[in-house]
């Protein structure tokens, strides 16, 4: 139960950060409600695996934590970019990549800061 609460706090923080970051990048391409929904769907698809699946699989395979982090972040970036492209259309692939890059870099860096402060 404690792991689920820890994940949920991290998910809410990630969602807030990525709504701001990806929302900023995607603002010319979708109305506010569609943007917010799209970003939420992308995070619901990627975040549980990053927090709950990749650490278990990585540890089970004997991967160092940094390798697991890199693989899980690549997963989140790729899946979220794919979801953005699917919703926005192939003509917006570059914008989808920018949104995913900015959102995931922001949430990773600010997440490390929040963890260092004991918030997550």
Give a quick set of tags describing it.
120 residues; mainly alpha; 0% strand; globular
Helices and strands, with pairings:
Blueprint: H1 2-26, H2 32-60, H3 65-88, H4 93-116
Write up this protein.
The chain is an all-alpha fold and 120 residues long. It has one domain. The protein contains four helices and no strands. The protein is globular.
Report a brief summary of the structure.
The model has no long low-confidence stretch (mean pLDDT 95). Helix 1 (2-26) crosses helix 2. Helices cover 85% and strands 0% of the residues.
Shape: globular
Number of strands: 0
Helix amount, in percent?
over 70%
Biggest β-sheet description: none
Topology pattern, helix = H, strand = E: HHHH
Mean pLDDT, all residues: 95
The total tally of domains equals 1
Low-confidence stretches: none
| Overall SS class | mainly alpha
């Amino acid at each position: 139960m404690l792991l689920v609460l820890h994940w949920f706090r991290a998910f809410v923080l990630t969602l807030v950060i990525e709504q701001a970051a990806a929302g900023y990048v995607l603002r010319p391409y979708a109305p506010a409600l569609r943007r917010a929904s799209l970003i939420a769907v992308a995070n619901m698809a990627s975040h549980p695996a990053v927090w709950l699946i990749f650490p278990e699989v990585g540890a089970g395979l004997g991967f160092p934590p940094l390798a697991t982090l890199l693989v899980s972040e690549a997963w989140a970036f790729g899946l979220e970019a794919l979801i953005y492209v699917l919703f926005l259309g192939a003509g917006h692939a570059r914008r989808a990549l920018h949104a995913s890059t900015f959102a995931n870099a922001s949430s990773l860096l600010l997440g490390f800061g929040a963890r260092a402060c004991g918030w997550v």
